[in-house]
Design a protein that fits this description.
The complex is a heterodimer. Chain A has one domain: Orthogonal Bundle (ABC transporter involved in vitamin B12 uptake, BtuC). In chain A, a hairpin with a 3-residue loop joins strand 1 and strand 2. In chain A, helix 2 packs across helix 11 and helix 3 packs across helix 11. By secondary structure, chain A is an all-alpha fold. The radius of gyration of chain A is 21 Å and the shape is globular. Chain B has 2 domains: 236 residues, P-loop containing nucleotide triphosphate hydrolases (Rossmann fold, 3-Layer(aba) Sandwich), CATH 3.40.50; 242 residues, 3-Layer(aba) Sandwich (Rossmann fold), CATH 3.40.50. In chain B, helix 5 packs across helix 6 and helix 16 runs parallel beside helix 17. Classes of the chains: A mainly alpha, B alpha/beta. Chains A and B meet through helix 8 and helix 9 of A and helix 1 and helix 11 of B.
Chain lengths: 337, 502
C-alpha cells in the first residue's frame, strides 16, 4: 500500500554519500596517511608487493562472490586452495610430473570439488554453509594423508621409505615468482584477468543476469525459464576452479607443499567478499568490490607493518574493517524492498 | 460508540496520507472500510493500532480520548488487528496449540513450562472462542491458508478485543472458506465486538457489512448504511463509474491451441478434458486447493501430469521446464508476484526494465551481451501501453502500487507474442480501478493466442472470462456461464482435501 514518502534531505544525502564512497575515501585516506608517515610506502615496488600479497586471497574471494551472487556460499575455498597447493607439490616432487600436467591436475581437482559441492547442495539439498564446511574439513584432512601429515619438499622421504626425486620446475615456480618487466607479479596479472572476466560475465552478459536472478529469487528465475539448477552447479564449479588457480599460485610462490599454507585463507577470502558489499554502495556481492575489499585489507596490513605495528594486531584490524564495512552495508543503507 | 476517529490527519514528508478522516464504530457492528491501493487504509489501521501517531485529530474509545505511543497501548485498549499477510503470523514449525498460546508465552505472562495438560486446555479454550474445529496438535505449516487465517483470528480474539480489525481476510479464501469465516465473525458481532472489516470484495461486503466507509486519496469519500448501495460505494472509491467489460462471442471455431485429454493431476483424482482456443479467454475458478496452480504448472512444464496428455496446436505437448514452454510461446504470470516474478532489491536489475526483459534475454541479447538501453526502450513502450504509473523503466516495482506492480507482471508477458498465456491470480492485491484496466488489457490482446486465467473469485472469473471452467478436488468439473451454475458446480464437486473447504 502507500509507502511513506522518502523526502530527499541533507542527512539522507550525506548518508548516501557515505554508503557509496565511504570505503574508497577511507582507502585513499589510509594511503595518504601511510605515505606521509613512511615515504617508502608509496614506492611502486611496495604497492605491487601489496597486490602480490593479496592476490591469492582476492582470487578466492572472487570465487566465493560468484556463489554468493547465485544465492549460495562456499566455505571450502580456503581448504581447497591449500589442498591444491599440496597436490601441486605432490605432483611435481613425488610423481615428478611436468608443469602442464600438474596444472591440469590441479584445475581438474578444482572442477571435481566444485561438482562435489554442487552435488551436496543442489542435488541432495544440504544447506550451502553446512555442505561446504564439511568439504572444508574433508579437504584440509585429505591433503595430510598422502604424506602422513608432513610438508612436501624436494628430496623428502616418503611413507614407504623411498626418496622423492622430483622438483618444482622453473616454469611452475615462475607462476608465483616471476615479475613482468621486473615489476608486475604473475599472480596479480592472473587475478586481474580472472576478476575482469568474471566481472564481465556477471555484470554485462545475460548469463550473469541469470546468476543474479537465481540468487535473488530462484523461483522467479525458474518460472521465467532459466535452468536455475544448472546455474547453481556452475557457480560452485567456477568458485572451486578459481580457488584451485589460487592453490596453484600459492604452491608456485612457496616452492614446496606446506601443510600450514592454507591457514586463515578462507576467512580472509570471505571477509574480502563481505567488505566488497560496501564498495560503491552496491549492498550486494560484487566482483570488483571483493577485489577492492582484499586490497583494502592488504593496504592496511602493509602500512601498519611499515609503521612497526606488531604483527598480532592483524586479525584485530581485519575484524574492525569487516565490522565497519558490514555496518555501512546493513546498518546505514536504506532497507530495500 | 466504542471507537471514534475524529479528524485524523497524517503526513509522510510531503505526502498527505490521511486528511480529516472521521468515523464511528459501535459495539456489535461491522464497519467495512473500502479504498483503492494508496487510499490510506493501511495508514489508518496503523494509527488505530498505535504503530503511527496522527499529526492531528484524535481517537476516542468509549468516549475517552486516547493517545497511543506504542502498539502495546492500543492492545491494552482492546484494539486488535489481524493483518493480511498470514505468512508473517505464527510460527509454522510449532503446533496449532503452541501458536494459539504464542502471545502469552512471548509476553512472559505464560507459564514457564511449555506443553502439558494445562496449556492444552488453555489452547482449547482459545480455539473454542471462535468455534475453531481443528486438531490442535497439527503443525501450523501443514494447515491450509484458510485454516491458518482462522488460527490468526482465534489468537486475536483471545485478547478479548473490543475492536477487531480484519485486513482483507478473504483475499486467499474460497467461497465456502469465506463463509466459514463469516460465521465466526457473526458470532463475534453477536458478542458485541466491533469489527472494522477492510475489503473491496463486493460479495464480502454484501454478506457481512452493516455500514461502509470509503477512503479515497486519504479522505472519506463516502459513507453508506443498509441497504448498501455497492455500486455507489465503488464509484466513490474509484472516483468514476466502473465499466463492465464487453463479452465477446462464445467459443471460436477452429482447432484449439491447447487440448488436455484424459488428464489427471494426481494419481487418485478424476480425469478431465480441457480445451482453449485462440482468441478466447478461459477463466478457471475453484477453491484454494482445487488444483488450479497444479494445472497451470503442468501446462508450463513445471511438473508432468499424473496421467493423460496435452497437445499444443495439435502437437504433443510435454515440456520439461518453464524454459521450454517459453521458447514455444507458452507463458505464465504466476500468482503472488513477489514470490514468482519480482526480484529483491539486491538484484542489480530488479527495476521494471530488468524484470520485464528477464525471460527474453536470449532473444534480445547479442553474443550474450545485454543492452540496457534497448531493454529500457522496450520497457518504456510497455509502460506507456499498459498505463503503468511509474517515473520510468528504472523504477523498482517495490515503489509502485499493487495495481501497477501487477501491470508490470502483465506487461512482461506481453513483451513477446504468446501462443498460450496463463495468468494465475492476476488480480491479487489490486484495487478495482486497476482491475478494470487489467481485464481490459488481457482481453484487448487475446486475439491471436489462447488465454487461461486462474482465479479464486467467482466475480473476477465472470468479469475476465469468455467462458468459466470450474475446478474442484484437483479436476475440472464443468463449464459455466453464470454465477448460479458455477455455485451448483462448486457445491456438487467432490469433497475438497482440506477440511476447511467443506
Amino acid at each position: 500500500m502507500s509507502s511513506p514518502a522518502r523526502a530527499p534531505n541533507a542527512s539522507l544525502s550525506v548518508r548516501r554519500f557515505a554508503i557509496d564512497y565511504g570505503l574508497l575515501i577511507l582507502l585513499v585516506g589510509l594511503v595518504a596517511v601511510f605515505a606521509v608517515a613512511q615515504p617508502a610506502f608509496l614506492r611502486v615496488n611496495n604497492l605491487f608487493s601489496i597486490l602480490q600479497a593479496v592476490a591469492i586471497v582476492a582470487l578466492l574471494g572472487v570465487g566465493v562472490t560468484v556463489t554468493m551472487i547465485a544465492g549460495g556460499f562456499d566455505l571450502s575455498v580456503g581448504g581447497l586452495a591449500a589442498f591444491v597447493q599440496m597436490a601441486a607439490a605432490y605432483s611435481l616432487i613425488v610423481l615428478d610430473g611436468s608443469t602442464g600436467s600438474t596444472i591440469l591436475l590441479c584445475l581438474g581437482l578444482g572442477v571435481l570439488v566444485g561438482l562435489g559441492n554442487a552435488l551436496l547442495i543442489v542435488r541432495l539439498g544440504i544447506p550451502d554453509l553446512l555442505a561446504t564446511l564439511g568439504m572444508l574439513f574433508l579437504l584440509a584432512g585429505l591433503q595430510l594423508i598422502p604424506t602422513g601429515g608432513r610438508s612436501i619438499a624436494p628430496g623428502m622421504t616418503l611413507l614407504d621409505g623411498s626418496v622423492a626425486d622430483g622438483a618444482f620446475t622453473d616454469a611452475f615456480l615462475a607462476l608465483g615468482r616471476h615479475r613482468f618487466w621486473d615489476i608486475l607479479p604473475v599472480p596479480v596479472v592472473v587475478l586481474a584477468l580472472v576478476a575482469a572476466a568474471l566481472w564481465f560475465v556477471m555484470d554485462l552478459t545475460r548469463f550473469g543476469r541469470v546468476f543474479h536472478a537465481v540468487g535473488g529469487n530462484e523461483l522467479a528465475a525458474r518460472l521465467a525459464g532459466a535452468p536455475t539448477r544448472a546455474y547453481r552447479v556452475w557457480a560452485y564449479v567456477i568458485s572451486s576452479t578459481v580457488a584451485s588457480i589460487g592453490g596453484i599460485l600459492m604452491a608456485a610462490r612457496i616452492g614446496r607443499g606446506d601443510v600450514s599454507a592454507g591457514n586463515g585463507l578462507m576467512l580472509d577470502a570471505i571477509a574480502a567478499a563481505l567488505i566488497g558489499y560496501a564498495v560503491l554502495g552496491a549492498n550486494r556481492p560484487n566482483i570488483l568490490g571483493t577485489v577492492v575489499g582484499a586490497v583494502f585489507v592488504g593496504v592496511l596490513l602493509n602500512g601498519l607493518t611499515m609503521l612497526n605495528a606488531p604483527y598480532y594486531l592483524q586479525d584485530f584490524v581485519k575484524g574492525a574493517v569487516l565490522i565497519g564495512a558490514l555496518t555501512v552495508t546493513y546498518g546505514l543503507a536504506p532497507k530495500q524492498g | 460508540m466504542v471507537l471514534a476517529a475524529n479528524n485524523l490527519t497524517k503526513r509522510f514528508g510531503s505526502t498527505r496520507a490521511l486528511t480529516d478522516v472521521s468515523f464511528e464504530l459501535a459495539a456489535g457492528e461491522v464497519l467495512a472500510l473500502m479504498g483503492a491501493n494508496g487510499a490510506g487504509k493501511s495508514t489508518l489501521v496503523k494509527i488505530l493500532c498505535g504503530v503511527h501517531g496522527a499529526d492531528a485529530g484524535s481517537i476516542t474509545i468509549s468516549g475517552k480520548t486516547v493517545a497511543f505511543a506504542a502498539p502495546r497501548q492500543a492492545r491494552a485498549h482492546g484494539i486488535i488487528a489481524v493483518h493480511q499477510s498470514i505468512a508473517d503470523v505464527g510460527v509454522p514449525t510449532l503446533s496449532v496449540a503452541d501458536n494459539l498460546l504464542l502471545d502469552r508465552s512471548c509476553t512472559g505472562r505464560g507459564p514457564l513450562l511449555a506443553g502439558g495438560r494445562r496449556n492444552l486446555r488453555a489452547a482449547e479454550a482459545i480455539a473454542a472462542g471462535i468455534g475453531l474445529d481443528l486438531d490442535l496438535s497439527r503443525t501450523l505449516g501443514t494447515l491450509s491458508i484458510a485454516e491458518r487465517q482462522l488460527v490468526a483470528i482465534a489468537r486475536a480474539v483471545a485478547h478479548d478485543p473490543t475492536v477487531l480489525i480484519l485486513d482483507e481476510p478473504t483475499a486467499s479464501l474460497s467461497a465456502p472458506e469465506s463463509e466459514r469465516l463469516f460465521t465466526v465473525l457473526d458470532r463475534l458481532r453477536d458478542r458485541g465486538v466491533a469489527l472494522l472489516y477492510i475489503s473491496h470484495r463486493t460479495g464480502d461486503l454484501r454478506r457481512i457489512a452493516d455500514r461502509i466507509v470509503v477512503l479515497r486519496d486519504g479522505r472519506v469519500a463516502g459513507a453508506f448504511r443498509r441497504p448498501l448501495d455497492l455500486d455507489a460505494a465503488i464509484r466513490a472509491m474509484v472516483g468514476h463509474a466502473v465499466g463492465r467489460v464487453a463479452r465477446r462471442d462464445p467459443v471460436p471455431d477452429g482447432a484449439p491451441v491447447l487440448r488436455l485429454s484424459q488428464a489427471r493431476l494426481a494419481p487418485a483424482t478424476a480425469t478431465f478434458d480441457l480445451a482453449a482456443h485462440a482468441g478466447e479467454v478461459v477463466a478457471v475458478t475453484g477453491p484454494v486447493g482445487a488444483g488450479k496452480s497444479t494445472l497451470a504448472g503442468a501446462i508450463l512444464g513445471r511438473w508432468p501430469l499424473a496421467a493423460g496428455h496435452m497437445e499444443l496446436d495439435g502437437q504433443r505437448w510435454r515440456p520439461r521446464s518453464a524454459g521450454e514452454a517459453i521458447r514455444n510461446g507458452v507463458f505464465m504470470a504466476g500468482e503472488d508476484r513477489w514470490r514468482t516474478t519480482f526480484f529483491p532489491g539486491t538484484v542489480p536489475f530488479a527495476h521494471i526494465a530488468g524484470t520485464i526483459g528477464f525471460p527474453f534475454l536470449d532473444r534480445r541479447s547479442r553474443a550474450g551481451l545485454v543492452s540496457p538501453t534497448a531493454e529500457a526502450r522496450a520497457a518504456a513502450r510497455l509502460i506507456a501501453e499498459f498505463g503503468i504509473k511509474a517515473r520510468g523503466p528504472d523504477d523498482r516495482p517495490a515503489v509502485l502500487s499493487g495495481g501497477n506492480q501487477q501491470k508490470v507482471v502483465l506487461a512482461r508477458w506481453h513483451a513477446e507474442p504468446a501462443r498460450l498465456l496463463l495468468l494465475d491470480e492476476p488480480f491479487q492485491g489490486v484495487d478495482i480501478g486497476a482491475r478494470d484496466d487489467i481485464v481490459r488489457a488481457i482481453r484487448a490482446q487475446s486475439r491471436d493466442r489462447a488465454t487461461i486465467v486462474f482465479v479464486n473469485d467467482l466475480e473476477e472469473a465472470l468479469e475476465v472470462g469468455d467462458r468459466v471452467v470450474v475446478m474442484a478436488d484437483r479436476a475440472v468439473v464443468g463449464d459455466a456461464g453464470d454465477l448460479a451454475r458455477i455455485s451448483t458446480l462448486l457445491a456438487s464437486g467432490a469433497p475438497s482435501p482440506h477440511p476447511a473447504a467443506s
